[in-house]
Prior knowledge:
Blueprint: E1 11-15, H1 16-26, H2 38-52, E2 65-70, H3 80-94, H4 110-132, H5 138-147
Antiparallel strand pairs: 1-2
Amino acid sequence: MISSTKYRGQELWIPKQFQDEFLHRLVGADCKCPFKRQVDLWWFAFCLGASIGARTPLPSDRHRRVKFNEGSILQTNSWQIPQLELWYLTTLERNSSAKFDPNTVLELDPSQILRIANEYANTGFAAIKEEIRNSTDPQLIFLKKLREPVS
């Protein structure tokens, strides 16, 4: 797997509208917030978007998206970068007629991985927004989501 230092300088994004409307309800040290850190919300949105199976490109206008951290933040949980890279490799293999080449692991491009992951996260943020728009208790919605079977 790629060294996590190669993720330094790579960008993680949250849609500006999502940040303005919902971030204060979802991230914080308050026990009523489902996420303690923005990166945890981003990871959830990425996983949700990947499970939906749709990528939503980031807005080209930088004023419509907010860089909240660098990809190197993912190394705070030792499993996240390897999991992200394994996900990327399995996605490549599934969506390509090419056979898996072990040398591919050495050639992974962190900017490409995070560009695609950000697009899946963007899909996840849109789905989260729809779920919690009229909710007074977003934590309850996330708990219910965890109980739903993954399709």
